[in-house]
Amino acid sequence: MSPASRVLPWVQRFNLKLLILVLAVGLGVNLIGVGHLLLALRSLLSPADLRVLLQVSGLLLLVLIPAAGIYSLVSEFAFWEGWLDGLPAPASLFPSAGTEPSSAQRTGDRCYLVYLDGIHQLERDHPPRVSAFLEVLEQHLPAHALLVRGLETYTVMPVALAEDAGSAWFWRRLFALQEQHPNGWIQLLAAVLVQANNVIKVGISSDRRYGPILNYELALKISLRLAEAGFQPNERCSIVLLGYSGGAEMAMGVGDYLRRITRSAVSIVSFCGVFSGNQQLHQLAGITQIVGSHDPVAAFGRLAYPGRLPLLPLSNWNKAWAQGQIQRWEIAGLNHNGSLGPFADRFRLPVVKAIVAALPESVPAPVQTDC
After folding, report:
1. Are 331 and 324 in contact (CB under 8 A)?
2. Which of 38, 314, 339, 341 maximizes the CB count within 10 A of its CB?
3. Residue % of the chain over a pLDDT of 90
């Protein structure tokens, strides 16, 4: 028997023992952490409340979150197969596309700023702090810019979660638990489930298999809102997608589809954005990142999506970066949310000024291409 053949079984046994040791240590650490958590909860909650909390947590992790993910994929499939009504065909949105505008229709440069909210969005109306932020932003916009807000970013049809035809009963019950249940932990878990549904949508948007359907559907919803706001592809108009947190991923996913539907220049501005950069970015007019120096969530997004790391120079994101399409602006001290987040009084105005500075000053001619 050769020395190599004698060493190989020993190496395999050593690797197996090392793997078992690592798993045992990891399991022990997890058990210790769970044990400390249970001890802390026992000191805060009564046995009855703790039992309810554990039951709801188990239901949340094992049933509701997977069910929300499956329902999201089924809804996208139903939309793609034409089983759901509510979104018009692109040709009916802008019937005059491809024709030369008359002199009366030429209204000069126009910039439509479309806001896509983060995963905290529950309905069309934004939370008070976000609404206050958007009001300040609207006050600082130049005369040629128009803010489009209130989009349902994380639903299939242009309705809020509580109005979705297939799951309205569930979301209404969940919202009632979040707002009216006497146990604060149950309220927290209900809010977590709502955000988990939106996180699933962000994950689908970044997926190469199912993402195109979701992104195309969202592009139709945005186009519908633009048409309601008076957008005409024949005008010298540009579209800027403004995404916060997970809304930045939705903006990245929808950008190229929106460019094709509207035949207009589309650019993206993200602040505190979490996104993959996997999508088609090379035909966008530009991408501006507004990041905070103390934002751990956005920093984690870069690690979660390796296509944004410089180790993969041929990824869509890195190719767009190499071509000079991406600008990155940093605001010192800015966090992802809370008292140091972009919606807080301290950082609201600096973020607004950065967004306004990123808007295009002049608008290129509409893009007449289907590629």
Report:
1. no
2. 341
3. 35
